[in-house]
Amino acid sequence: MTFRNECPRQIFSSWRFRQIVSMNASLGDGIRSILIIQTKYIGDVVLTSALVRNLRLSYPQASVTMLCAPGLKQFIVAQGIADVAVGFESRGRGRTLRKRLSDYRGVISDLRRKFDLSIDLTDSKTSRMMHRLIGAPLRVGFDPPEHPMKFWEIQLANVLAATFGQGGAHYLYRNLSPLHALGLDCQDPTPRLQPTRAAQEECARILAENALAKKSYVAVHAGARFEGRCWPPQHFAAVIDEVYAKTGLRSLLVGGPDEGLAAQRILEAAASPVASAVGKASLEVLTALLAEASIFLGNESGPMHIAASVRTPAVGLYGLTSPEQWGPFGVPNRTLQPPMPCPCIAPGVCKENNAGRVYCVQRLQVADVAAATLDLIGTEVQKSAHSGISAA
C-alpha cells in the first residue's frame, strides 16, 4: 500500500510509516463496511461495478454503499453494484449556495464514521473534502488527482492510488487502481451486469409489442449527455437502412425521455421498419434490451458501456474522446474516430480540449460506420455458426 498522513507534503518518519501500515493491515482483516464515492455518469458507474465486484471477493463480509447521482440509485441497487445507494447532487442545479451547503452537511452527517473503508472515485474538490469529513479510517484517493489541484489544495486520503491505474490505457483501470493501493488482487477486470427478472419480463413485452425476436435486432442509441458527442440522426437512419437491406436485421432505438427528438428524426428519415423504446424503458429494462440485442450501435455514452457489460458486441462512435480510454470493454467491438487533429467543422462553437463540447464525431462518414457495423455483424454470425457446428 501507499499511505499518506494528514499533511501530505510532510515526510514520514519510519516510525509513523510502520504505525499506519500496522493500523491498515489490522483493519484490512476486518473490513465490514465500504463506501464508494462515485457521483459521475452511468458509464462511470458501470465501470465502477468491476471495482466493487473485486472488493466483494476480497472482503466477502462487507456491505457496500455508493454515494451517487440521485437518478442512478435504483439502478445501482437493482444491479447489485452496491447494497445501498445514497443520492447526492454534486452540481449546482439551480440551488442556492446555502441549499448546497445544507445538502452537503446532511449527507456527511448521515454517513460520518459509518465505514471502515472509503474510496473516492469522483476525485473532485468537493468529493475530496467530503471523503475526509465522512471519516473512514482507511480513505483511498488518487495521487496526483486526475485534474491538477491548486497549490493550496491537498489530497485528504491516507491511502494513495495511481491516477491512471495499471494494466492498460482504458479508463476502467483507473477505477481498479484502488485495489492495487490496498494490496488486493484484481481477479476479473471486466464489468459484468445481469438483467433482473422483472426487467427481462418487461423487455419481453417490449420486444413482442414490436415483433422483435431475441438476438434479431440492432440496438441503436443516437443520444449522449452532450450534444457534441452525437452523430447526426439522418446518418444513423442511413446506416440502419443499409443494415436492414443487407442483413434483414431491424433496429430498435433506445434512450431516455430527453432523447426523443433524435429518435423521431431517425424514424422520419429511415426507409426500413424501425422500432423505438426511447423514453419507455428504465435503466434496468434498457440493460435487458441491450442484453438481447444482436449488436449495439451508438455514440460514446452510458448505454454503450451497459451493452458491453451484458456481453453485447458494440460499434462505438467517437469524437475527441479516445476509444482506447473509453471503448466498449471486454466484448467484440468496432470503434470509429475521425482523423486527428480535427479540422474544425464548428469554429466558434467547439470548445477546444473539451470532449463533450466539440463536434468532431460529425465528421464520421456513413459508409465507414455502415461498413464497420456490417463487418461486426458478419463476424458474430460466423462465430455463432462455428459454435453451432462445434456443439453439434
TrEMBL record:
It comes from the Bacteria. GO terms for biological process: lipopolysaccharide core region biosynthetic process. InterPro entries: Glyco_trans_9, LPS_LOS_Heptosyltrfase. It holds the Pfam family Glyco_transf_9. Gene3D superfamilies: Glycogen Phosphorylase B (3.40.50.2000). GO terms for molecular function: ADP-heptose-lipopolysaccharide heptosyltransferase activity. The keyword Hydrolase does not apply. Keywords: Glycosyltransferase, Transferase. One of its GO terms (cellular component) is cytosol. This is Glycosyltransferase family 9 protein. It comes from Mesorhizobium ciceri.
